[in-house]
Amino acid sequence: MKGYYGTQDNERLSNVDSPVFKDNLSSDIIYPEIYYKIQPFVIFACDQMESCRHMINQSMLDQVGDDIYTKVCAMYPDLEEYANQSPMKLSVETTQQRQRRFFRRRGVFQDFVDLLLLNELFRRGSILF
Looking at the record's lineage, which domain of life comes first (predicted)? Predict the structure, then answer.
């Protein structure tokens, strides 16, 4: 079966152990440290969601995103401190004014978790909504 890059899937997988592949993987793709802390939780959650084989809806995404956020904060308390640095206690009027300028659902850190979750689901070709 032809893979994404026009090669056979088994051919592509056999090249994973090659030194050239490992060098390219480690030198070309550089993500922030926070990505490497969150991504394993995202992958685990996506594996669980795929095993259920249900269509994924908004409430499921919110629940899984909250669960990932909770687990990451439990594992890395320093990230929770970082996430709580931004002022979240705003008056209703100020919140409404801010929402007109930009859209943020639950804070930068939780939005980042949701973004990584959606990215992984789309990468896997999961059925959404």
Answer: Bacteria
